[in-house]
Write a structure and sequence with these properties.
Radius of gyration: 22 Å
Low-confidence stretches: none
Helix content: over 70%
Number of strands: 0
Distance between the termini: 31 Å
Largest sheet: none
Mean pLDDT: 84
Order of helices and strands: HHHHHHHHHHHHHHHHHHHHH
Structural class: mainly alpha
């Protein structure tokens, strides 16, 4: 082994806290969304579309953060962009939990208060958008080629672990409490709890270096070589990697357009992002307790079933981490797409026949397990590695912005779609899973074992 394993895993662990906060911020709404409906939506007589838009409002920030990630990561660096994200997470956690602070009276619903709550959720969403793009990018630019897939997949593990943690937090806050207490105070504690991991993330980021590839991009060659020497035990190997980075970046200095390597690589990045969302995964994550309650589960039982689903997500993300650098990216993606299609078509059929029971939970688990061993982590691995060095910041920003836009469209339309037809809603997600398999088979290249500098050669062909 030619690299410093302890150092690399330590850096990766800190960077994946961005993923954990991504998951935490995304899923915290699952335990609070019914209270938000009771506290802010129903008293104002607003529709299910407004409810869906409020539940999904953070995604507007995610889109903004995704778009800004390219500018921020290129101008301020990968590390400083993650620091900005940590600050945004912290502000959003406290602001979302106590939106009345400074301007409103507690207990009095108003349209202005609803907009203020959404504003704080958007702030957190910008943090998620930045972290979702830059955390995997940071890890991919630090990681050796032969374990890069595994290390970037740890970011997805952190996302899912963050969701599991917040499911426990939400369940613990709600356990044994009355609906009235949860609707008055409980939901506030759910949101505010995110301030703790956000503060930890911000503090630990001061202990990690900037990535060598960004340092070369910003003409800090000595610092870049110093970081590479810490990562690699073999100093000759560090120099060889440094030379490859210099050549790769130097060759395209005059061609910094995001389309410098053609449009196909950008289109593939966008479609990877869109399909990851159009298969409907975030519907299961955002509305999990409500879905289980619609199947006949009591409030506490629906929260507990959500935790069970969280455990399944963690286990199958570990499967992806173990297999991504052995099997490759394409086989995992295609296998996952097939599993998701089977799960969603089965749920659609059960919904059409109004069959509610353990079978529905089983197929939801089949669906989510298939996603977590494939599109969950592997999409982020590919987005972080398929783009050549010079355009990576811009290209990742485009792909991530497309992902959050697709996420918003799917999540915000779910309540209205379900009012029309549950069977057709789940059938649509199943169809998207089939199309995602065909897309990977026909268009996505295998990147297993290739260095980031080899991506340039791949797309030049």
């Amino acid at each position: 082994m030619n690299y410093n394993k302890t150092y690399i895993f330590g850096i990766t662990l800190v960077a994946t806290l961005g993923g954990l906060l991504f998951g935490y911020d995304t899923a915290v709404i699952s335990g609070a969304e019914k209270s938000i409906e009771a506290y802010l939506i129903r008293p104002l007589g607003l529709s299910s579309l407004i409810h869906g838009a409020t539940v999904s409002s953070a995604l507007i920030g995610c889109i903004i953060g995704g778009i800004l990630s390219g500018v921020f990561s290129n101008r301020f660096g990968r590390k400083k962009t993650l620091l900005i994200a940590a600050v945004l997470f912290f502000i959003s956690a406290l602001g979302s939990g106590f939106p009345e602070t400074f301007f409103f009276t507690k207990g009095e619903s108003s349209l202005a208060l609803l907009l203020t709550f959404n504003f704080y959720r958007v702030i957190g969403g910008i943090g998620v958008g930045l972290a979702s793009a830059v955390s995997p990018m940071y890890i991919s630019e630090i990681a050796p080629a032969d374990i890069r897939g595994r290390l970037v997949s740890f970011n997805q593990f952190a996302i899912i672990f963050g969701m599991l943690v917040v499911y426990f937090v939400n369940w613990g806050i709600a356990l044994g409490q009355s609906i009235e207490w949860i609707n008055d105070l409980g939901w506030r504690y759910m949101f505010a709890s995110e301030a703790v991991p956000a503060a930890l993330f911000g503090i630990l980021l001061f202990l990690v270096p900037e990535t060598p590839r960004y340092l070369v991009l910003s003409n800090r060659d000595e610092k870049a070589l110093s970081v590479l020497n810490k990562i690699n035990i073999d100093k000759l190997r560090a120099k060889a990697i440094f030379s490859d980075i210099k050549q790769s970046i130097g060759r395209v200095t005059e061609r910094s357009s995001v389309f410098a390597y053609g449009k196909v690589v950008i289109i593939i990045g966008i479609l990877l992002s869109v399909f990851q969302q159009f298969v409907g995964i975030n519907v299961a994550l955002y509305y999990a307790p409500r879905i289980f309650e619609s199947m006949g589960a009591a409030k506490d039982a629906s929260m507990l079933q959500t935790i069970i689903m969280g455990f399944v997500n963690v286990v199958f993300t570990v499967v992806a981490i173990l297999m991504v650098d052995k099997w490759g990216r394409k086989p995992l993606l295609i296998t996952g797409s097939i599993g998701m299609a089977l799960g969603m078509f089965a749920i659609s059929w059960l919904s059409y026949n109004e069959i509610i029971g353990i079978s529905t939970l089983v197929f939801i688990i089949v669906y989510t397990a298939s996603f977590m061993m494939s599109w969950g982590p592997i999409c982020w691995v590919l987005i972080s590695e398929i783009f050549p060095n010079k355009i990576r910041g811009q290209a990742v920003a485009i792909a991530v912005a497309a992902q959050w836009t697709a996420n918003y469209l799917i999540s915000s339309t779910y309540p209205a779609m379900m009012e029309y037809s549950g069977a057709l809603t789940y059938g649509f997600y199943g169809l998207m899973a089939v199309l995602s398999a065909l897309f990977v088979w026909k268009m996505v290249p295998e990147t297993k074992g290739k260095s980031l500098e080899e991506m340039e050669k791949l797309w030049r062909k």
